[in-house]
Write a structure and sequence with these properties.
32% helix; binds uridine-diphosphate-2(N-acetylglucosaminyl) butyric acid; elongated; four-stranded mixed β-sheet; alpha+beta
Amino acid sequence: MSCFSVTGGKKLSGEVTIQGAKNSVLPILAATLLCRGQCILENCPRLRDVEASIRILQSMGCLARWQEDALVVDTAQMSEPVIPDELMREMRSSAIFLGAMLARCGEAELSYPGGCELGPRPIDLHINGLRQLGADIEENGGRLRCCSSHLTGCDIVLSIPSVGATENLMLAACGAEGTTRIFNAAREPEIVELQAFLQLCGGEISGAGSDCVVIRGGKQLHGCTHRIRADRIVTATYLCGCAAAGGEIFLRGTREADLAAVVTVLRDTGCRIQSGTDGLSCQRNGRLRAVSPVRTAPYPGFPTDAQSVLMAALLCAEGTTVFEENIFENRYRHVAELRRMGGDIHVLGRVAVVNGVSRLHGAGVESTDLRGGAALCVAGLAAEGCTQVGGIHHICRGYANLPGDLQALGADIIWQHE
Ligand code: EPU
């Protein structure tokens, strides 16, 4: 089986350019369904989840091709608004296509996303909101059939600020007549970027980044050229890598503003992080310090996606750090693997208590999900000896080249092919 083989104990040094953001590009790929004309997405990361979205677009008759680091998408020839079951299974977040398909075609068919490695993945908020816009949605044998001859703008209040529901409803509302206001909307940078893309295509939309997004629908959108912003979670991963291994690194193309909560915690651990015009530098000398409880929360709170990599960095910190995971039910699956490397972690429900140890040792470990897998690599950078991280298909869903990037930062890591 292929794995990433990390030999720890080496300080990091060097620089790398941060890839485009997975969670920005996925809803934007769905949004291309709303555009007449070619969309060019520059700095598009080549990831398993992006390839899965391309296959979904192609299965509906759309064209998508790579042109160096840009993905060129033309949805003019879109035929049937149906996503086959096997493509839905490849990527649970493909429900994001629903709103765009409805806006474009007035109908959509796809399977219910079901659960994933992070626990149940309900889309009730997406569905309720779409119903409020006038969609008729039926579930039968795990398939969702949606139709609407006429979507009409309205006020929608989300009970929780769901990222996916906000995005889905923004896309559907572009095809609805009149004004839609989404209250208690998610405020993540990916929502702001989706709005920027839609505006470039001629959409009338405002408010993203606040808790109320306003969409004036019914306008025909055109193509555009948009550059995908740097991935804030990949940035957080490499910052945590430096925190774990020590040394000094520079991450090009990324900005502190998108991950202020993570940077604040890392500074509290003793890392020296500085923002420049074109990136972030991080320096760590001496032992890390434990920090006050880290509670994951919707943006601008501490991101759930960075919980595992921060935990990995703090395994050898002086003192005890408490984590509280408030977004997903099943997001401590990396803990058992980190323990195999010598981590002292106790989990009770949504709380994990990490007692800093003086050393970690390499081990054979298995990625259980995308960010959990990245955390094992971060821990491997700090461990004595060799850590072999299996299940790397999870990691490749979201990191375009994790071993290559870490090598550029001076780490001893190789991709061992079977
Ligand atoms: N939820 C519901 N009902 C819904 C929608 C969500 O109960 O209709 C619940 C979820 O079960 C979860 C919480 O609300 O407990 C938050 O879910 P949200 O909808 O905000 O998350 P998402 O859109 O499914 C995106 C990212 C995740 C990231 C979360 C939180 C994408 C493709 N995925 O998921 O990213 O963790 O927001 O920030 O944007 C990752 O990249 O590894 C990843 C999992």
